[in-house]
Amino acid sequence: MVRNLVRHRPGRGPLLGATAAVAFATAAAIAYSRYRSRVESTTDEVRSVTERHAAAFLVDRRIDHDRVESVTDSVTETLVGHESTRLLRLEGASTASLFLESGGEDPLLRWYVEVPRTVVAEWSDPESTVVNAFPVTHDALSIPDESADRELLVHAVHPTRPRTIAADGSEPTTVIGPDEAAVDVGLVRLDLESGVSERFADRFAAVSRDVIAGELELGWIESWSRAVLEAEAMYTESIVLERGSDGYTAYQYMETADMEGVYDAYYDTWNPIARVSELLAGRIFEEPARILEYPIADDIELLAHAIDPERPRRVGGRLE
Description:
- The chain has 320 residues and is of the alpha+beta class.
- 31% of the residues lie in helices and 24% in strands.
- The longest helix is centred in the first third of the chain and has 20 residues, at 18-37.
- It is globular, with a radius of gyration of 19 Å.
């Protein structure tokens, strides 16, 4: 299973045809899941935080077309510079970001939040809990008419991700704006090609559910994935799948030391995770250049970012 979203260097073509690439990936997913089911878990070794240990959510609010500036001004006034809990909102939340998306039919505020699975397990209705915790209140905001069917596919955490995100190195007790951040944070929307690509996404989701349930172990995939994260200085990475009436969409969330450095490191590594994902580049998305070329698509803008100063980084019998 490829745990990295595929990236592609401008000027380099994919090595497999569309059908062959997806068929290869699907076969790899099946073989991978069977392999992982035979791997015994070792609770005493230090391991990376994955989707088994933490959940990540995306929640939207639609903005009235003629009130976008009023809403963004409100975000600056009520969130940026204030206590980080205003953006984290949920008990145990460790990382949260707020974005403005302007490229779709309606402008949107989109909230990303990461929460430990142990906390989510205590919620009677996780979806409502997260939706009702949205961090911005404004009379120009409304809940979208069609509720999104979203599922976390991948969540990965750098084993030494920083616990300060301010450029001056201060303790991260406040929400910071994009200009004050010592990290690059991005969210990219990617529509999937219909048909085979959507079936592959469904298979990917099934494997991820088994990982979350503890029925599959990451094994050597975890080690290789961690090596890619460390090389890229990718602190937090999540992929969320959305199934909508007009098709499937993937959202890629990235928090990193330097976005350009992610791409440089990705193509300089021999790592099998990176190389297999390169084979799929450009074949499953309708507009692959949005993520496969640097700079990434810029129609989703970071407005605010916050972390808990004790956010989890590793697993060694407990989250650390």
